[in-house]
Amino acid sequence: MCGIAGLFRPGGADDSALAGIVGRMTAALAHRGPDAFGSWVSGRQGIALGQRRLAILDLSEAGAQPMHSACGRYTITFNGEIYNHLDLRAELEDAAAAPNWRGHSDTETLLAAIRQWGLVPALQRLIGMFAFALWDAETRQLILARDRFGEKPLFYGWSGADLVFGSELKALAAHPGWAPSLDRAALTDFMRYSYVPAPATIWRDVRKLPPASFVAFVADAGPGTSPTAQSYWSLRDTVVAAQGDRISGESEAIARLEQLLSRAVKRQCLSDVPLGAFLSGGVDSSTIVALMQAQASQPVRTFSIGFAEGGYNEAEDARKVAQHLGTHHTELYVDARTAMEVVPKLPRIYDEPFADSSQIPTHLVAQLARRHVTVALSGDAGDELFGGYNRHVWGSALQARLGRVPMPLRRAIGAALGAIAPEPADTLLNMLQPVLPARLRVRHAGDQVAKLARIVAADGFDGLYRTLCSIEQDPRATVVAGAERASWAASEMKQLRGQISLLDRMTLADSLSYLSDDILQKVDRAAMAVALETRVPFLDRDVVEFSTRVPASMKVRDGRGKWLVRQVLYRHVPADMIDRPKTGFSIPLDAWLRGPLKSWAGDLLSPARLKRQGLFAPTRVTRMFEEHLSRRHNHAYWLWNVLMAEAWYDEWGRAG
Q1: Which whole-number Å values give the CA distances from 577 to 79, 286, 318, in the listed order?
Q2: Strand partners for 130
Q3: Phi/psi of residue 562, each to 5°?
Q4: How distant, in Å, are the alpha carbons of 4, 126, 368, 487, 569 from that of 285?
Q5: Does the annotation count 269 as an active-site position?
Q6: Which residue in 487, 491, 527, 8 sits closest to 201, CA to CA?
Q7: CA distance 88 to 85
Q8: Alpha-carbon distances, residue 18 vs 6, 13, 174, 221, 231 (angstroms)
């Protein structure tokens, strides 16, 4: 795991000039790779590659980067891990196509694979997470590539005469010609989703490379050139193809999922440094930890974060699972003061507006884990692949029922539900929890009622689903000169050919955008800020492709999601230790904005300041803040969007 950066100046340049620039760009990523710095420059070819190294595999100099292929044609700077690289080495050796290996790093394996099979066939063979820049001296091309789900980030754009790229935007900002302009359409999309969907960034003409794709810049590329990214794998096509290849036997499905996940965990436990896992006590992280412990010769190191507020605290559940599995467990309880110490760091960590409030506990648990290990496995992606969100459970049923209700009546019902203040709803539902059946128990009932109000008033399934995924329903009313546009994920969804189930449609949409642009980026930045590598076994290629063949009835059943994953987990952990309302990795943001974060929020949201910054409509923001403080409505997530954008602008806005 590393931080990569570099530049390409078609036509060539002075070696020392390029070396100085790539040195500054790479230094901006020192947090991602504190173990070593490396660079390679060819002024004649106009190329400079840099890397900050976090040594995980092959700690020797044989694993240092940038790295040259044995044949001399390719030079690469690589961020990530190729989990099946030993299998690829064996395949190369069997074909008598292996070089004289200098070490045992996966980067060396990747270079040999590209030399033997070519770029696209090599990418299609990889099981892992990665982003890399590859210089091909023969064709004089710079190639940027990213893994199937975008676990590892990669940004690129033009800065004057230089094509610049890096693992984070701060690397691009270190280029002396950096002078971007704010993209208000990206800001508008951010207000809807709490993140900027790929391929956009908050800056105009600076892009995120979409997942499962690569882009090539040729020697005569002119400033501003933007070649079309090409895909080497498609989740959309995989989901469509699986419609005619469903798994029918439940026993077979359970056994196969356990086998595939166990193999993925084994692959991802390959490390030359200490390794552990995040454990929330929920279905996904408990499943990963259970399979880790089943293969381990000693107790696995596990880590969790707890809160004093009961509705947000999963630490006790995690502790019970850890005790049952026999892990070496470490937990940390945090309060609002601890969280406030993280808040000022967030704009620097994310370097574009990002407002998934679980970024705070994610950073804290990563910080906790880094004191003991260098690599941590997580349970991320289980929800997206196996139907774990409430919207996956409710979506089809709601669509079937609401479709029979006239639209005017639905709007009236939605308005009535929306008028219910959140705290009375929370109080009533909390009183009823002991007598409700398990499938009807929910945490944060007031928020769920507000969400239901929006759902009822939504028009059609696509409208309903967009409502479910949106924080702000009309972001153009909030962003000054705002506009919305289609994201890469939305374009992918529009290209669907053939019928797929509503559940498959929902999980596909979540995987293409929310998983890639929110969850994986949140974890990458939060963990790499403290030089912790995170790995996601659910995103093993074989597990993902298997998940597309699992029918809806084995994902959502009896009012609960992830039925199939639960069956695997029940082989290791008693069901009564796991079956409880889904909490999500969240903080008591609504209460904190009325309490310990109130003064900080009030300063950022003052009308005079908002008018001066010119990002958001001051009157609208003031009204929402007042309604939240008075408890008439819970606008915590909406306000967090505005706050994170304003805090980001303080840190980075003057660059534009």
Answers
A1: 38, 10, 10
A2: 80
A3: 55, 40
A4: 29, 24, 17, 30, 10
A5: no
A6: 487
A7: 5
A8: 9, 7, 13, 18, 30
Classify 136 as helix, strand or coil. strand
Six-digit token string for 421: 């203040």
pLDDT digit string, tens, across residues 152-178: 999 999 999 999 999 999 999 999 999
Specify whether the backbone of 350 is left (phi greater than 0), alpha (psi in -120 to 50) or beta. Answer: alpha
Q: How many CB atoms lie within 10 A of CB 148?
A: 26
User: Which contacts qualify for 474-478: CB closer than 8 Å, 24 or more apart?
Assistant: 475/188, 475/189, 475/191, 475/192, 476/188, 477/617, 477/620, 478/191, 478/616, 478/617, 478/620, 478/621, 478/642
Tell me how far apart the alpha carbons of residues 290 and 229 are, in angstroms, rounded to a whole number. Answer: 39
Task: Name the residue type at position 388.
Answer: G
Helix (H) / strand (E) element for 652: namely: helix 636-652
**Residue 256 tokens, joined:** 């196969």
Q: 79 pairs with which residues across the strands?
A: 131
| pLDDT tens by residue, 181-209 | 999 999 999 999 999 999 999 999 999 99
Residue 24, SS3? Answer: helix
The single-letter code of the amino acid at 541 is R
Which candidate in 2, 71, 269, 469 is catalytic? 2
User: Facing residues of 81 across strands?
Assistant: 129
- The three state secondary structure string of 520-570 is HHHHHHHHHCCCCEEECHHHCHHHHHHHCCCCHHHCCECCECCHHHHHHHH
Q: Can you tell me which residue has the tokens 């374009």?
A: 491
For residues 501 and 461, the answer to whether their CB atoms sit within 8 Å is no
Contact 651, 485 (CB under 8 A): no
- This prediction has a pTM of 0.91
Strands 533-535 and 375-377: parallel
The strand order across the sheet containing 36-42 reads: 36-42, 47-53, 2-8, 162-166, 155-159, 206-208
